[in-house]
Amino acid sequence: MSRRYFLHIACVVAASFLMLFPVSCVRNEKVKENEFANTPYGNFMALWTIMDERYCFFDLKKEKLGVDWNEVRDRYAASISDNISDRALFELLCKMIGELRDGHVNLTSSYDYGRNWSWKTDYPANYSRDLRDKYLGKNYIIGGNGYYHRILDDNIGYLVVESFESFISSGRINVMFNNMALCNGLIIDIRDNGGGDLRAAEFLASHFTEKTLTVSYYCYKSGPGHNDFSELYSNDLSPAREDLRWIKPVVLLTNRGCFSSANDFAFTMKALDNVTLLGDTTGGGGGLPMSSELPNGWVVRFSSAPTFDADTCHVEFGVAPDIRIDMKQEDMLSGRDTYIEEARKFINDKLVNP
Amino acid sequence: MKIILKMLMTVNSRCSKPLLPLLLTVCLTVLPLMGFAQRTAWSLPQYNETVRSGSVAFGKSFARDTYLSASSYSGWALGFENDRWTGNKPDKLFKYGRGHSSLFFSSMTNRLKGGSTLQLSGSDHAAFLWPAVNCSMCDLLIGPVAMMELGLLYNQQNSNNPVTVEGYLGAGLCVDNTFRFSLFRYDMALQATLYMPLAGIGFAPDYDQPYWYMYKYSEYGKALHFIWPLNNTAVMQQVALILPMRGDRLKIGYTFDYTGNSLGGHSRNVGSSLFTIGFVKRFQAKEWDK
Q: In which residue ranges of chain A is pLDDT below 70?
C-alpha cells in the first residue's frame, strides 16, 4: 500500500479520536450530580444553601426580626443526626425556614406543607365570612371566580374579591361598573385574599385610574450574595383604555389576611387619589416566589424578587391602611361588620364634604 | 491505550444501552484498517445532488437546570432527525454542505420519582465542508458550522417558576467522517459527525431573573451571554451505520447531544442519548444557477 494511503488512514483514525474527545471532556467537567447527598445533613445543607443563595430578604429580616442566617444554620445543624426520621427532619427544616416569617417560604413534602403563617395568625382576624355573606345577601352577582358584587341599601357598591387566582374579564368589569354606575362610591373587600396572579391584581387596579403613574418598583436577585440585586425597575399602572373606569370614591378593606398579590393590589390602589385603605395592615408577601428542590425531592419555595411601593419602601411586612380600625366585638354580636359600616360612613361623609 | 479506552468508554457514559454505541465506536476506528473498500454503498453528492436522511429517534434524555431545580432529571425521549448532504460547485473551497435538524420531546423524573420535567427541544445546524481526506474507502470533511439549539423545560413541581428556556446561536466546527466497507458481500457505510460550537450567543436568565419581568420590562439584554467552550460546552455527535435495503439505504445510528453551561450564575446540563433508525434518499436537485 502506498504511503499516501497510510497517511489517509492515519488522518481518519486521528479524526475519529478527535471526535470522541469532546465527549470525554464533557463528562469530566460538566455533568455533576447533586452537590448534596440525600442524607439528613445533606438535605439540611441543601435547603440552607438554596435559601442562602436565593432568598431575597435576609438583610430586611435581620433588621426587623434579628434573623442571622449563619447563626440559624449552626443552631439547627446541632439537631441533625443520621438516624433522624423523615418527619422529624421535615419538622426541623420547616422550623428553620419558619424563622424568616415569610408566607412565601414553604417546604412541601408528600405529607405536609410546611409554613409559618404568623404574619396572619398572630394578629386579629378582623374578618367574619358570615358577616360578609350577610352583607352580600342572596342575590349578589358573580362577576367571575371569586368576584362578587351587589349594591348596598345606601347606594354604595360592595365588591368582594376573594382571590386573585383568576382574572375577571374586561366585559364583566364593564357590566359590573354599569350595574353600579349610579352608586355614590364603591367598597372593595379584599380581606383574607391570599393572592394569586399578580397580573389579575394589576388588571383590576387599572380600572381605577385615569392617568399612568408609577405605583411600585421591582428588582431581582442577580447573584448568590445576600446583597446581589439588579437595579430597580419601575412599574407603571396605566388606565384600562378600552374599558369603563371607576373614578368615584373607593374604600379598600384590608386585614392581615391580604397577602402576596392582594398586598400588591393594596399598595397599588393606595397610590391612587380616589382610593382610601381602611382596616388593618396587610399581611405582606412582597417577594415574587420561586421554587427549587432538595435531594430527597421535597420542594422549597422562597421569595426571590423583592417588591417596593411607590416610595421604594419594602412591602414585605405589609401595607399600612390610611384609616386603621379593628372589628368591634359589639358590632359583630349585633350582626354588623365594623369595616363595612365605617367604609359606608366614610363614603357618605365624603358626599357631604368632598 | 488506557487513554483511548477511557475515551471509548466515556462516549457511552450517558447512553442507556452502551453496547451499540460502543460497538459503533470501535468499528469507526477499526474498519478503515480492514481494507474492504467499496464505493457503491455511499458516495458524497455531486454538484446539484442532495442526500437526505430522515430518522425516528428514541432513547434517554437528562436535564439539570439549577434555575428550576437542584435535582437531576432523566427519562425517555422521542423525536425525529433530518440530515442532509449537498454538493456545491466543484470549484468552491467548501465542496459540500451538511445540515442537521432535530426535534424531540422527553418526559423526565427525578431520582426519587417525586417530580417530573417535560422537555421540548429542537436544533438546526448548517455546515460548509472541505474534503480533507477523500479516498476510495473514506471521506473526511471538515468545515465551519452555524448552530442553533433551543429547548424548553417545564418542571411540574414548581408553581411559580415552572418554565425555563435554554438555547444558543453559535458558530463552530463540524467534522463529518464516512467509511465505506463491505461485509458478507453487502456494501455498507459507517458515518460519524461531530458538531461543536466555539463561539456565539447563549440565552439564560440573569441568575433569578423572573421570566415575567423579562417579558414585562423587555429586559432581554442581561439574558444574552457570549458563549465559548469554557462557559458553554456543547457537542452533538452522530454515529450511524448505513445498510443497503433494496433500492434504498437503511440508517441505524446513535446521537449524543449535550449542552452544559454556567451562564447567568446558574448551571445547566441538558442532553440526550438517542438511537435512530431511518432511510437515506438521494435526490437530484434543481439547477438553481440556470
A: 1-34
Q: What pLDDT is stored for residue B161 in this prediction?
A: 85
Q: Do residue A8 and residue B138 have CB atoms under 8 angstroms apart? A: yes
Using a CB-CB cut-off of 8 Å, the residues of chain B touching A295 are: 70-71
Q: What nine digits make up the cell of B74?
A: 432523566
Structure letter (DSSP) for residue A202: H
CATH topology of domain B36-283: Lipocalin (2.40.128)
DSSP state letter for A196? B
From the candidates A28, A30, A49, A111, which should be mutated to test the interface with B, based on the most B CB atoms within 10 A? A30
Which residues of A fall within a CB distance of 8 Å from B192?
16, 19
Asked whether the beta carbons of residue A297 and residue B196 sit closer than 8 angstroms, the reply is: no
User: Does position B4 have pLDDT exceeding 70, yes or no?
Assistant: no
Report whether A263 contacts A282 (CB < 8 A).
yes
Longest dimension (CA), chain A: 110
Domain regions of chain B by residue span: 36-283
Element (H, E) at A283: none
Q: How far apart are CA A300 and CA B139, in angstroms?
A: 53
Of B6, B29, B142, the CB nearest to A16: B29
Whether CATH 3.30.470.20 fits A129-352? no
Separation CA A227–CA A211 (nearest Å):
34
Whether the CB of B233 is below 8 Å from some CB of chain A: the reply is yes
